Amino acid sequence: YARFHFRPHFYQHAGFRIARSEAAFVDDAADVREIPLTHVNSPPPHASGWDPRRTATNGISLKRMRRSEAGRDGEMSWEEVADCDAGVALPALRTGYASMTEDRMLQMHYGTCGQAASALLGSGGSFPRILAEHATAAAARVCTGTSRALEVGCTVGGATFALASMGAFGSVIGVDGDASCISTAQRIAETGELSFTERLEGELVERHAIALNADKSTRSRCSFRVMDPCGLSPELGAFDVVVVNNVLSRVVSPKSVLGRMGSARGLVAVGGVCVVADTFDWQDELTPRDSWLGGRRDDGQSSRASVAKIMSDSGFELVDECELPMVLPVTSRCVEMHAPCVSTWVRRS
User: Fold this and answer.
1) How far apart are CA 52 and CA 71, in angstroms?
2) Which of 86, 118, 122, 148 is most exposed, with the fewest beta carbons within 10 Å of its own?
3) What is the pLDDT of residue 122?
4) pLDDT tens digit string along 33-91?
5) Which residues contact 294 (CB under 8 A, 6 or more apart)?
């Protein structure tokens, strides 16, 4: 029996290997073999349909492995064969914000989500910019100061850069638990450039390279840190505006995130604004059911009501609540439409 649960994204288990596995060649002419069990170095097909190369390349540049001539000392070596030559289809796209690959996240933050969606929503269909505009407007109405802003759940940094570009904040910090996303955001801040792969249709993809719509001075006011949203450090200090961007339904303890907004060393300064945006599409694999803020059949509690109670008990007053459009790109002519609940709070005590 294994002590740990093995999941594709748990790379700390990469040291575990299958000691022995029976193999059967399914195509003698092509010399392609099938392995009934999966480990991270094995060629496809893989157990349960999972391909480690698919995870590492965001589902775009999948590779198939073909056995080449025996290497030195009789060891097997494998060469990569492009999918277009092997006739291997791209994987089915998963839906929802939590399943977004980094390429799709970059397209959502900095690209466009199709002409129709852009014309309908404005701001290029970019939810991070729409949210940043909403938070900035709220701060202008009720905030006593706008020197510092924090985005919790910044992923690749779109809303963080948008907050800085509006000129209302002297410094903006973005934090996220995904080190890869933070590394990408830091690279964009340094160079002002980014690239992503857009899925057009079927197996067709297109690579985009664009310049960030923010000058060096604006980018210099942005910084990014890898930090667990459930354990936000008090060393961050207090902020005039804190944006909690689609984090609650993606962490193991959403109450811990909201609990850091108030209290003696809370992240939101007295008189400051906290904007909480989330779709509340709870999933067991991301948040244990007992930690859901709502959506359970046994008590019938809504997540909106739970957020309201937690924030009110922490000294916050609700000043605005609405739904903002969030478009997630799928292909060049296919998008997902979400409507996160966005509540704006001012800290009174």
Assistant:
1) 24
2) 122
3) 55
4) 444 444 445 555 555 454 544 443 333 333 333 333 334 344 433 333 333 333 434 44
5) 280, 301, 302, 303, 304, 305, 306
